[in-house]
Amino acid sequence: MASATKQLTYRRYTSIEFLLGTGLTGTICLLVLFSDLLFPGAGKIDLSARLLPPFITMSHPFGTDPLGRDVLARVVAGGKISLMVGLLSVAGAVVIGVIMGLISGYYRGFWDMIVMRFADVQLALPFILLAITFIAIVGGGLRNMILLLIISQWVQYARLVRGSVLALRDREFIQSAQAIGVGDLNILFRHLLPNLIGPVIVLMTLNVANNILLESSLTFLGLGVDPLTPSWGGMLADGRTYLQNAWWVSFFPGLAILLTVLGLNLLGDWLRDSLDPTGRTSK
Amino acid sequence: MFLRKRVWAALMLAALVAGPLATTPAGAAGTMTVSSPQDPGSWDPIDTFLVNWASVATNIYDGLTYRGPDAKLVPGLATSWEELDGGLRIRFHLREGVVFHNGEPCNAEAVQFTFNRLLGEEGNKGPQRSNYTAIKAVDIIDAKTVDFQLNKPDPVLLTKLAGYGAMIVPPKYIQEKGDAHFNANPVGTGPFKFVSYEPKVGIKLEAFPEHWGGAPKLDKLEYRFISEPSTAVAELQAGRVDLVIPPTIPIAMISTIKSDPRLDIVTTASPTVYALRFNTGNGITAKQEVRTAMILGVDRQAIIDSVLGGQAAPIASFQGKLSFGNDPQMQPLPYDPEKAKALLKEAGVAPGATVQIDIRGNDATFNEVVQAVASYLQAIGLNATIKPYETNVLLNDIIPAGKTGEMFQQSWGGWTLDFDNTAYLMYHTGEKWNPYDSDKELDAMLESQRSITDRAEREKILQSIARYAAERALEMPLYNLNAIFGVNKRVKNFTPVPDSRLRLTEVTVE
Hints:
The structure holds two protein chains of two kinds. By secondary structure, chain A is mainly α. Chain A has one domain (68-281): MetI-like (MetI-like fold, Orthogonal Bundle). Chain A contains eleven helices and no strands. The mean pLDDT of chain A is 86. Chain B has three domains: 2-37 and 191-266 and 487-509, Periplasmic binding protein-like II (D-Maltodextrin-Binding Protein, domain 2), CATH 3.40.190; 60-175, Alpha-Beta Complex (Dipeptide-binding Protein, domain 1), CATH 3.90.76.10; 273-481, Roll (Dipeptide-binding Protein, domain 3), CATH 3.10.105. Chain B is built from 17 helices and 19 strands. Chain B is of the alpha+beta class. In chain B, α10 (288-296) runs antiparallel to α12 and α15 packs antiparallel against α16. The model of chain B is unreliable at 1-5 and 11-28 (pLDDT under 50). Chain B has helices at residues 2-21, 51-57, 108-119, 121-124, 157-160, 171-177, 179-184, 229-238, 254-258, 288-296, 300-306, 337-346, 364-379, 391-398, 419-427, 440-448, 455-471; strands at 31-36, 65-67, 73-75, 78-84, 89-94, 135-142, 145-150, 192-198, 202-207, 220-225, 243-244, 263-278, 312-314, 353-360, 382-389, 407-412, 475-488, 491-492, 508-509. Classes of the chains: A mainly alpha, B alpha+beta.
């Protein structure tokens, strides 16, 4: 028995998802964390070195942008804002959404009605309208942007979780847990949550990428960050008009988003498999 | 995400538009297709202030006066005019034998009807009326002569009669069909007559051979509304559009178009000028030496040459070279970072003092310019940050309420090409665009030129206003942007116009 668990644990940590996922995500996080040390002066503008193509000079391996800044340095530095927005907003929305969904699905009745009507109101408001109103009331800035994303996205998780809870709460294993007197908190977090976390993780990984891009759109509305501070979404947007003659301006930040999302997806798959209480490991 | 959606929407729209067009290629004899970035929604002259209204409607309507690509005022529907009563009355002699596209004669009655409508209840609903309030009444002297009675002399009135709200409209047609019908089915006296209009898609015109100036050389003129620059450029490359008019083509795409042997870029100076204006009320920019130092510290010529690809001209005051009131003798302050640093030190500004620059969030080119400006300011020891706002918020809340940072973006350009339209609104005490400054001397100069109709004297005052504002360093004048047209080489005799008031009578296509 003991050796079987050990073997399972071993298999878990040598799965291709785990290795690739942690490898990618870890490398990107490390690069981003130490970007100041690796590329001091990433924002240096040099109008004499505009739009240099990549892989030509050693000093600018990924080329330069329309203001002569090194694309590689900006991609690495840009991860700071993008990862912060992507990860924090999703984490916040998941925490609120999952708790709300669990409560309304499990207790039904009054709390269900309150939470779900609130969710309906939220879903009826178009995102842009919400964003503009939000800016008008609390103003712009990075923190407010993350708050806005949390406010606008928790509903998705709440709905998802509530639906799963409704399907699960009448199943035998929950009923038997209730019968032997397991407390509500225990049932919610030890019996229900692990059984419905799979789809939540999938939605999370999708939303991380989505929010990294949203960050740049929100800049148009005045919620974003200083254009001097690089971010992946912002670099993608800036490079849009240069696509035909300088593909590298938007290609490399796009690649960074792709790799990050790929890493998080793999990690998410692995996490889902590890947490799956039915014990099915990845094939 | 939303960017993507917009690109997709534009592509789908382009696909939808391209479908029906495929049956009648732009190559048909004498047909020219123009891409315009915006559908003004109504073709009634009194309903609009959009330049893209004018880029179509200049072909449909005539005014009493006319101003072409050379920016010189010439006779239009009026063959001559004279000032009476010391500038308080202007007598216009109308052109003989002019008819509207529907056959109605264009006479003194039509002129009177046009201005009664513009200044009356109907005109009050639109944005054009306020430009023409100097007119008290229009009197009919005989069928071919009208008198404009003025409340006060208006030195810019003759120019204003060449465009927008002053276009002469057909009285019978409007009275019979109503305003709503006229909005979507315009009738004028211009060289092209209206054929069909599909909102958000395009408008089609055809030659009006009976035009008083002679028949236009093109048979048909079609406009398509394409708002996404990449789509417009792609259509130009594909040959489905012959001309892309400003403001569409981003600086970044110029080289793409130039590299295509079938296409060309044609540019001319436009009225649009860009400046970063100072918060003269508070912060370090309240001091004039600091403002001057900041102007000296930014290499504006280098920004024009690199970021703007040379498609702009340096300016010494907040106006372009076409503007009435521009003094060609006036030189922009040189780029002198050493002197800038010295001035800052003298003014007691500590190194690392912060400067916040407020800009419109949606202007991609200016966004790059302002980042370059910020890096120059960094170099003279100021810590510049940029704050993008949603355009309407910046224009209607932040600037008028005086809530800007140390500097804020102002892009400006009036089609009348008269410095009064800029200077009065920017510098006079209490104006919407002047939230911080109040200068009695400047106010007096601005007021004095408003009632003078003597051109030379007025020009002198406007020039001294420009010099005075530059001495006080009220703004960092950046550049005068070119109007950029993308054109297929099969289009011949095309003359770019500075103000989007595009009249395509001489143009031919192969």
